Amino acid sequence: MQDLSYYEILEVTRDADKTTIKKAYRKMAKIYHPDKNPGDEEAEHKFKLCNEAYQCLSDDSQRGIYDRHGKEGLQGMGGARRSSGGFEDLGSMFEDMFSGFGGGGGSRRRQNPADVEKYNLDMNVDMRISFNEAIFGCEKDIEFRFKNACKPCKGTGAKDGKLSTCKQCDGKGQVFMKQGFMTFSQTCPACQGVGSAPAASCKSCDGKGYKEEKGNVTVKIPKGIDDGNRLRVSGKGNIGKRGTRGDLYVTFSVTPDKHFQREGNDVYIAIPVFFTQAVAGENLTIPSLTGELELELDIGTKDKQHFTFRGEGIEDVHGHGKGNLTAQVNITYPKKLNDEQRELLSKLQESFGIESKPHEGVLDSAIDKMKSWFN
User: What range defines the domain where residue 266 resides?
Assistant: First the structure.
């Protein structure tokens, strides 16, 4: 796009009039504006080129030089300069084009200050529960604090509810910033886009527009709730200016268990097994979420081998069945041997004959080959 002419960048013909150029610029700017393409460096670059093209083609003097000598002819003028058709009208153009970002695009009317809340009506509280409470469900009493609109100021934060034009944005609800060829708009931080601000602060709420109150509710936590899951409690959130109440969201964090490890609806448990048990393929009694299970080891069970019990996992919080329980075998070995144990192991090894020395057949040829390297 950088190698295109200004006319090609805006997708207009060389004989296009100012109205056509301005219309084309609006169209391209809406496509590549950074607010619509957050983090997209290519879109930001194209947006800058569109601005550069518009600055030139909207000014008769610059356009004439560009038509005769191209971009090189403009370099002596310091590039696209400020002009009556350039930066001066970008502010109003961007206010019209982008004041509606976040609300579906296009321009929008500022909301009535009486309808704009100073805080979100929905609210969140965090709750920590134990592993078994998450698995089997439970009931919990929650105490929390919520916001209620201040009655004397009607939730505005202004004395007697009286508002005046916001000085920072001059009542527009948006502020504009220019960086090089680009102009950015954002919601006014002083009035939150309302365009009005308190003439004097309400003493009852110190200008906050609300007071905090205590609340409590008993929630039924379903089986299978997981770390990070949220539960909505309808109509227990903050209260707005007109008495509308939002919802309370409870976000759960689950304390890990010492033995069971959860992965979604599946559960894993490590089973320490002595090497003789693994060799003999013994049967072991192991714990599960609902009681005891019988683990039948294979003869010669390997270290880290998994044994899965279908349907012995966690009940899905949405009622879509249950997960599995997987037992992982961790083989342990003796750290030292006494004479009797060493003798018994020796006899056991001899009883297996050649099978007890698998390395000999595999490594003999490798040893012979290694010796040949030094002959």
Answer: 260-332
